[in-house]
Amino acid sequence: MIPIYQYQLFWVILGQMIGIASYIAIPNPSLFFILIPFSLMYFLRKSIYLFFLIGLAIGFTRITHRINVLRYEKPQFTHFNGKIEKAHKSKNGYSSLIKLNDTQKYIRVKINDEYISELNFKKGSNISGNIKLYDVPSPCLSEAKDIRYREYFSQIISYGNAYNISIIPQSNSFFQDKIESSIKDNFHHPESTIFQTILLGKSSEIPYEIKESFQNSSISHLLAISGLHIGMIMLFFYAIIRWAIYFCVYRLYIMPIVSISKIFAICGAILYLSLIEISISSIRSIIMAIFPIISYFSHRKTVSSHGLMSSIFILLSIWPESLLYPSFQFSCAAVFGLISFKSNFKNYFAQIAFSTLICSIITLPLTIYWFNQAPIQPFLANMICIPIMFIIMSLTVLWLLLFKFGMSFLILNKSISLLISLLIYLSRIFSNLLNSVLLFHQISWISTSLCMISFLIMTNEKYRKISLILFIPFVIEIFNKPNNMFVISRSGEVAILQDGILHAKEENFTTNCWAKTLGAKLSIDNMVKSSVKFTYKRDRRNNRRIHSIKLNNGHGYTLSKQDLNDCPCKIKLF
What we know:
Elements: H1 8-25, H2 31-35, H3 41-44, H4 46-70, E1 79-90, E2 93-100, E3 106-112, H5 113-116, E4 126-134, H6 148-153, E5 156-168, H7 175-186, H8 191-200, H9 208-216, H10 227-248, H11 257-275, H12 280-297, H13 304-318, H14 326-340, H15 348-371, E6 373-375, H16 379-404, H17 410-431, E7 437-439, H18 445-457, H19 464-467, H20 472-479, E8 485-488, E9 494-498, E10 501-504, H21 509-518, E11 521-524, H22 527-531, E12 532-538, E13 544-551, E14 556-558, H23 561-565, E15 569-572
Parallel strand pairs: 3-5, 10-11
Antiparallel strand pairs: 1-2, 1-4, 2-3, 4-5, 6-7, 8-9, 8-15, 9-10, 12-13, 13-14
Helix pairs in contact: 1-4, 1-13, 7-8, 8-17, 9-17, 10-11, 10-16, 11-12, 12-13, 13-14, 14-15, 15-16, 15-18, 16-17, 18-20
Domain ComEC/Rec2-related protein: 198-459
Subcellular location: Cell membrane
Protein name: ComEC/Rec2 family competence protein
């Protein structure tokens, strides 16, 4: 097999990634300064350098154009009219994504139960009301990941709390809405939420504890629309059309059965893509599935790496911001690992164990970066749950076909529900096995990127030992864990980090974010109240702010004006 770095398209993609990342990471991006470190490549191999330059220009130009097109002013309105694009129930109300009628931009809105009463809060309904807007939240700590990029590229201009709501239900009934209604009528909760996620890619209604158990047991990828789902859909359409032609059409020798079946398989996958909530992994899977079929018609040999690189190139050319999203990074990294480090085992369980090991190692830096944790045992859960998921997907495709023709069978519904219940049960067992996960504090994106580059270099056997050097910054950051500090927000929220435990007065979104970012366990106790004294001061707007803090052991700190502007600031004291 030819190493992936010997393909010219690889250097185009590498240039794309560097062009996109440099525009976002460098305060004053300039192609001139970007090209200097790579100018020596010209003397090594001219063709590689030229293709790298092409990719660099495409990536840099595309992200520049994308940001300029999406540029918008901060909204100031207090009344809104729009359409509900997404909605899910939260603890004390609804959280929804609303597309505004006038600007066609989006706002994320929280609506408390007291304003909803018995309104039909459903996707597609028209909604209007009063709103109090606020900016998209900044990171809770300087080390935390910034969601503002993602919201910016999704054209979400603001967050807000809405009240005095008026909702007009949509009169039209979509095929997707009918599927959701049928799932809720034929399946119990929470099996219905899992089945809806598997079929349509909608995971917003899955209970948090089930999401966490799937994540801790390293099988959360089974709930994402990925190659398994797309492959099953295409295989199903291919088999149905091929056998239908074989049994129903006379004089088969005049018809290219295989070619017609593969064309219908592509059409079936595209129809399925229009039905679900489109994700980066689903688009990548579709592109990689189409390439072997194109190779078949063009009488060329299929190479998996060609499909992967082509899908990355297409995604970054159309949506350059996808480079920043975890779904893109995890999907491409996992497939790259499976392609570059293939197993020679013939035993099924050995193949699953090796594939799981490769995917776990390749995606480990990304898992630590995005989720601040890593599973202890990813193998056993995948060896048992992947075959179960394969059966569920087969029955799901059959269920979807019967639903299209207005049919439903009780035995099929019960079988799917039983298998999903088993999957949930197993996720809980493996989640609690060996304390499930290790906690990590926030690692920088530079160290994480160096790790991913190291895996790329490992595909060349000559440089595998040298590539290990790039892991050093990542390892140093992991062992350089923060400890013994205050964490304070402008609003007066205070927590103490000591010996790997974050002590706080109450559990809320902010304290949970702090604990996750610092890689600590959250403890709700009276430590802050009993061991810390605060003095307060009024600011220019007459708001009460913390002025100084002091421990009972004598250590103290006075907050400066800059500290008050940071949200929040961390202060090492002991």
